[in-house]
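In response to the reviewer comment on reproducibility (Comment 2.3), we provide here a single inverse folding case reported in full, input and output, so that an independent group could reproduce the run without further information from us. The structure tokens appear first.
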């Protein structure tokens, strides 16, 4: 079974999925008039602390922070190291490119989610690709075609599967691994219980509790990690120019780096850089739009601009910093190159990251440990909200409590090293949830781009959207 699942996983995250996601990024970049040029405006809006007076449950900065909490995970550290080992230093450049173009997709998918959001029986805002399918393609007589129903159900079902593994088990495993290796003697089960308690007291409090914690945690952890990376780069200053040059050289030329020890040339750099970049920023997967729909915002474009800064921070900044740190450290410490060359199978992504950061006296290992633990914990919080919204869509509000119980239980199983099959299944679900999401936003891209012209390019970003937000029937 594991072999079959691994085969399916390699197919769904293979070249076809990479082409679909990257192609969508490029297409929507062109169709939105290169919305990325509005990044300075979007950053100013997000730095304002989420002061929009529009309708919603949480601040628009809270929605951004929660989405960032779910996005900046182990992929921002270990995922980058894995890409460098498999694709060489050039993979860092292609990760960066997916972030630059991915901002357009994040903008469009969040716009659609906010535009087609609904209220539940208690007045809470609900959104995401499932509600986009439900409302955007409803006929004039109020009925929905079967394919629209299927699109919403498929997205929600795949998302529930993905959240349990990707958001819970994998992150708990990463936290346990880094804590027990750094502090010998602590048993896995003790870390697992701590994770269950720390996660449970937040997620059972609902979206306000999750967003409140993320608003406080995300800026601190991101700034602390970025600051630590900058310190390491300063210590690697003599190798910094060579590292950046090597990243660009390996991105465009069929050259394996470090004497052939790392990477396999241009195609491998492109494949692994794009794959890890697309996974790290989640643009196109449809996850961030679920929390974005709960934001207080005057109109869909306002929150969409703020949301696209999440892709900028997660991939264009954090992943790029990690990549340059790792490449410059390998150049500055030839012994790491020699070990990889002697046994290319010796290093995993986690081992390479740990070794690279440990070369920096005093600060290296603490930066890595704090970064990994805080990133993993915040990811567990963010993905729990995605999953409970999708579970409620499929089975009604009665499904939320059972989902949360399963979610924290799987976190404990991940902490004690159980659940390889769950992780692989969730990875497959992660890829498959992107398909109905991408189809929906491509079908709606013309409408969204016309409205974007009005709100963004014609200077009406402060205009209130007066369309009525419908209430769904209680299940």
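Designed residues, in position order:
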């Amino acid at each position: 079974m594991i072999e079959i699942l691994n085969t399916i996983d390699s197919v769904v995250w293979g070249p076809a999925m990479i082409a679909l996601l990257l192609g969508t990024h490029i297409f929507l970049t062109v169709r939105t008039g290169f919305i990325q040029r509005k990044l300075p405006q979007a950053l100013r809006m997000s730095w304002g602390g989420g002061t929009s007076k529009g309708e919603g449950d949480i601040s628009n900065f809270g929605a951004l922070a929660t989405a960032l909490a779910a996005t900046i995970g182990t992929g921002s550290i270990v995922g980058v190291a894995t890409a460098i080992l498999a694709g060489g230093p050039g993979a860092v450049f292609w990760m960066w490119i997916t972030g630059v173009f991915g901002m357009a997709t994040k903008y469009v998918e969040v716009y659609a989610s906010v535009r087609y959001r609904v209220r539940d029986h208690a007045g809470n805002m609900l959104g995401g690709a499932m509600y986009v399918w439900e409302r955007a393609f409803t006929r004039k007589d109020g009925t929905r075609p079967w394919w629209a129903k299927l699109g919403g159900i498929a997205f929600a079902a795949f998302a529930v599967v993905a959240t349990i593994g990707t958001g819970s088990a994998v992150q708990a495993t990463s936290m346990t691994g880094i804590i027990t290796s750094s502090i010998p003697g602590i048993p896995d089960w003790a870390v697992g219980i701590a994770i269950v308690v720390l996660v449970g007291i937040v997620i059972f409090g609902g979206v306000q509790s999750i967003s409140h914690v993320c608003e406080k945690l995300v800026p601190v952890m991101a700034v602390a990690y970025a600051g630590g990376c900058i310190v390491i780069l300063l210590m690697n200053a003599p190798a910094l120019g060579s590292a950046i040059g090597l990243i660009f050289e390996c991105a465009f030329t069929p050259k394996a780096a470090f004497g052939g020890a790392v990477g396999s040339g241009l195609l491998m750099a492109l494949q692994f850089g794009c794959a890890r970049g697309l996974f790290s920023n989640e643009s196109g997967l449809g996850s961030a739009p679920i929390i974005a729909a709960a934001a207080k915002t005057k109109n869909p474009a306002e929150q969409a601009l703020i949301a696209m800064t999440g892709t900028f921070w997660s991939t264009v900044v954090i992943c790029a910093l990690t990549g340059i740190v790792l490449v410059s450290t390998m150049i500055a410490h030839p012994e790491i190159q020699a070990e990889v060359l002697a046994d290319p199978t010796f290093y995993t992504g986690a081992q390479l990251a740990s070794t690279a950061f440990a070369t920096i006296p005093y600060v290296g290992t603490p930066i890595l440990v704090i970064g990994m633990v805080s990133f993993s914990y915040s990811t567990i919080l963010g993905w729990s909200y995605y999953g409970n919204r999708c579970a409620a869509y499929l089975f009604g509000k009665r499904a939320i409590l059972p989902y949360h119980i399963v979610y924290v239980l799987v976190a404990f199983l991940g902490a004690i090293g159980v659940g390889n099959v769950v992780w692989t299944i969730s990875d497959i679900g992660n890829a498959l949830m992107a398909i109905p999401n991408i189809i929906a936003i491509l079908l709606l891209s013309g409408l969204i781009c016309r409205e974007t012209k009005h709100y963004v390019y014609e200077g009406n970003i402060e205009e209130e959207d007066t369309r009525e937000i419908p209430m769904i029937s209680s299940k």
